[in-house]
Specification:
CATH class of the largest domain: Alpha Beta
Order of helices and strands: HHEHEHEHHEEHEHHEEEEEH
Subcellular location: Endoplasmic reticulum-Golgi intermediate compartment membrane
CATH topology of the largest domain: Purple Acid Phosphatase, chain A, domain 2
Family: Belongs to the metallophosphoesterase superfamily. MPPE1 family.
Number of strands: 11
InterPro entries: Calcineurin-like_PHP, Metallo-depent_PP-like, MPP_MPPE1, PGAP5/Cdc1/Ted1
Strand order of the largest sheet: 4-5-6-7-9-8
Number of domains: 2
Strand content: 15-25%
Main location: endoplasmic reticulum
Cofactor: Mn(2+)
CATH superfamily of the largest domain: Metallo-dependent phosphatases
Structural class: alpha/beta
Largest sheet: 6 strands, mixed
Distance between the termini: 24 Å
Radius of gyration: 27 Å
Number of helices: 10
């Protein structure tokens, strides 16, 4: 009997060890081999100018107090935290851009809920001092156009130190950051201000590229690196649908041919034409759809829609790694662990543990049954 109980104790310890190992594998370790498969695209250095390494992700959708269930929050936020922290540690980007919809309920949040959401964001996306984090505005952060208010916009801009129209220059690479929610074209006060600022930036950038600051129209304009910008915004530029999009992270077939609504799924034709005409960007990166897509506008301007970074929106989240020089761009996509892979590991492990436990219980009952039979025979004699 002592040996039976001893083997039971050893089995219990083994099962606990197995479960803990599976937990550590699924919640920590799995991110390392998956993200280690990613690498920075290579660009030849010119005149000893080292290229810029930038990481792009989108649509984190941190759940709020209204619709966010605590278990859903815990699961999704832990996945994003481990994915982000592991990516920083392994890839060491110089700058990280999040292309909007940081929060899921920013458009509804009270002041208290907003502060709680911001606190959780800063914990999940904490980063070393030598890595810059730039956050863009999305419709879930301040509301769709009809929900957008000055107060919602200003609290977002104050927390993340952003504006609705800005050119950020790093290592000679210009990034045009745009609040695409304000590109509605209906002459609302916020929209007018953003469009006016964009027009001013386009004039200054064109003057810098053409080197014409001595002209009257270029006097007193801001100077930028003489290069076409990389346009970053939440909404994609106008396209009819995702029908032309392919790849493992493209929209499902039943969604791919649904027509997009202007000013809701994509910005309007008119706003798209203005941005392309004013800035002639060498690359456009956007989010919003939660799916991946590559498209070429006017046979000149490539746009890539970045899928959601959260398991809540897709089974296979991803982000973009970009290597930039003044004259060249190289991009690669990095996929995160799939949620169904992690669930399959948990389910198969639990099944194996349950089978081993049931088998041991059956053996234990047999071992108890044998002495009882012997005692019964002894009494009969």
């Amino acid at each position: 009997m002592i040996s039976i109980y001893g083997s039971s104790g050893r089995l219990a310890a083994l099962l606990i060890f197995t479960f803990v190992s599976v937990f550590v594998l699924c919640e920590y370790v799995i991110y390392y081999p998956v993200i280690l498969r990613c690498s920075w695209p290579h660009i030849e250095t010119v005149n000893s100018h080292l290229p810029l390494r930038a990481l792009f992700l989108s649509d984190t959708h941190l759940l709020g107090a209204i619709k966010g269930h605590w278990l859903d929050k815990l699961r999704r936020e832990w996945q994003m935290e481990r994915a982000f922290q592991t990516s920083l540690w392994l890839l060491n980007p110089e700058i990280v851009f999040i292309l909007g919809d940081v929060f899921d309920e920013g458009k509804w949040s009270s002041s208290q809920d907003w502060e709680d959401d911001v606190r959780r964001f800063k914990r999940i996306f904490r980063h070393p001092s030598d890595t810059e984090l730039v956050v863009l505005i999305g419709n879930h952060d301040i509301g769709f156009h009809h929900e957008m208010t000055k107060q919602k916009l200003e609290r977002f801009e104050q927390v993340f130190n952003v504006t609705s129209a800005r050119i950020l220059t790093i290592k000679g690479v210009n990034f045009l950051l745009v609040n695409s929610v304000a590109l509605h074209g209906d002459h609302c006060p916020i929209c007018q201000r953003v469009e006016k600022e964009l027009h001013k930036l386009s004039l200054a950038l064109n003057c810098s590229i053409q080197g014409e600051h001595h002209y009257d129209q270029c006097k007193n304009t801001e100077s930028f690196a003489p290069a076409a910008p990389v346009l970053l915004q939440h909404y994609p530029l106008y396209r009819v649908s995702d029908a032309m999009c392919t790849g493992v992270d493209a929209a499902p077939l039943d969604e791919r041919y649904q027509l997009f609504r202007e000013r809701y799924d994509v910005i309007s034709k008119n706003a798209s034409k203005k941005l392309l005409w004013w800035f002639k960007p060498r690359l456009i990166l956007s989010g919003h759809t939660h799916h991946g897509c590559e498209i070429l506008h006017e046979n000149l301007y490539p746009e890539i829609s970045i899928p959601s970074f959260s398991w809540r929106n897709r089974n296979n989240p991803s982000f973009i790694l970009g290597t930039f020089s003044r004259s060249d761009i190289r991009l690669s996509k990095c996929f995160l662990p799939e949620e169904r892979t992690v669930l399959a590991l948990y389910c198969s492990s639990c099944l194996i543990i349950a089978l081993i436990t049931l088998s041991h219980i059956k053996m234990f009952r047999r071992s108890l049954h044998l002495p009882n039979r012997l005692l019964g025979k002894h009494k009969t004699l």
